[in-house]
Amino acid sequence: MGQQESTLGGAAGEPRSRGHAAGTSGGPGDHLHATPGMFVQHSTAIFSDRYKGQRVLGKGSFGEVILCKDKITGQECAVKVISKRQVKQKTDKESLLREVQLLKQLDHPNIMKLYEFFEDKGYFYLVGEVYTGGELFDEIISRKRFSEVDAARIIRQVLSGITYMHKNKIVHRDLKPENLLLESKSKDANIRIIDFGLSTHFEASKKMKDKIGTAYYIAPEVLHGTYDEKCDVWSTGVILYILLSGESVPRSAFPVSPRSSSSFCSSSSFCSPGLPVYLQKREIKSCVAFYVGMQRDACALIYLGTQDARAGAFFPDEKPRCPPFNGANEYDILKKVEKGKYTFELPQWKKVSESAKDLIRKMLTYVPSMRISARDALDHEWIQTYTKEQISVDVPSLDNAILNIRQFQGTQKLAQAALLYMGSKLTSQDETKELTAIFHKMDKNGDGQLDRAELIEGYKELMRMKGQDASMLDASAVEHEVDQVLDAVDFDKNGYIEYS
């Protein structure tokens, strides 16, 4: 990583303790409103005193993502290591710190979880939950085309995360397959939204003006410089189009032939189709690192696979395809995005339901004010139909979950904060998977939170599952119990229970 060494390889020592929230130092903390973000500390302790690096998971333009292990708990985590030499610009540092602050505020089963934030002389370290399934980008390459059931499951999760963000006045602004990770390698792995570097808070009465995003997924209004949170819906609509289109998303290894070499321009992200790029042997490594690690895009016109990299020339695709908007270079792509025109004319669309196409049309509606919201998209017929039977929870699990919630009602506020801390840092994905599934079943609107009405319906559904007549229940008694539950476990007193 250069002359300045990161602290990944340092000796073990006594780390600074974490999880000390304001207001927890004395008394029972009856007035404490606990949130997951209060445990995400900005630490100046020596990173390697707490964590041991194991292997590199990936590389990006600002640094590496490394699999690490907590020396105290043994828990694995993913650490984004960012060299300060790469964030010399004030805007870059502001982007990084903004990402940390936003992640501290977000607690949702489809949004990445941040544990800690370290800083030393040469590096920043973002310590988060580890996800082993890779990018949705890689899954698209591997599977080519997704069934409507699988596509609906993925898009429902993305929309759920977006709905939650928008509800909290946060817009992502760079949704694409590379920024959607799979929790595991299993076929039904959950989706996690990552990379909040371009995200920001928004106000309903004010339009955003920054022209940022990724060419293929950026909304037309962003290019025009006046937009709102529905730009995220457009980007998700593009992803849905790609999942169902069956078109090969270009990630090509190009034919290589030995020819006279010339210098490689690492600042160029695009090349015209058919134009050869000549490489010297010593440039192969930097070329691969640049295209594979830093500038890879789900629809990139250039992708040099390491197995095909050798001295000589390689060629971009003659006919690049990137549904629904494509072009020979970034300029052409953005021009097509700006027009916002796409079709369902290719043969594979004949196999796709009209309901799916209807949702795509609503998500890719050109005028933002006419475009469907993320919340309403969750209620669309296609999402509801194709995700209806995917969540199943047995009666004992649901019964035990509600029983545990009831028993939790008497817990002191400080103990609640401790439980929240353990849930946010010390609980593995396997340990929380069943509980998440239970809460997911109760989460009727799919926004990643349980409100009062959903808890009431959850109690009634449990009665039906146990063969009892829910209509015979005392409505006021059920509501009273739900209110007690909310009072006990609604840590931040927002009227909802988060379950990530």
TrEMBL record:
ATP binds at K80. The keyword DNA repair does not apply. Residues 1-35 are annotated as: Disordered. Its cofactor is Mg(2+). It comes from the Eukaryota. Belongs to the protein kinase superfamily. Ser/Thr protein kinase family. CDPK subfamily. SMART domains: EFh, S_TKc. It comes from Toxoplasma gondii TgCATBr9. GO terms for molecular function: ATP binding; calcium ion binding; protein serine/threonine kinase activity. Residues 430-465, 477-500 form the EF-hand domain. This is non-specific serine/threonine protein kinase. It catalyses: L-seryl-[protein] + ATP = O-phospho-L-seryl-[protein] + ADP + H(+); L-threonyl-[protein] + ATP = O-phospho-L-threonyl-[protein] + ADP + H(+). InterPro entries: CDPK_Ser/Thr_kinases, EF-hand-dom_pair, EF_Hand_1_Ca_BS, EF_hand_dom, Kinase-like_dom_sf, Prot_kinase_dom, Protein_kinase_ATP_BS, Ser/Thr_kinase_AS. Keywords: ATP-binding, Calcium, Kinase, Metal-binding, Nucleotide-binding, Repeat, Serine/threonine-protein kinase, Transferase. The keyword Secreted does not apply. Its EC number is 2.7.11.1. Transmembrane segments: none annotated. Residues 51-383 form the Protein kinase domain. Monomer.
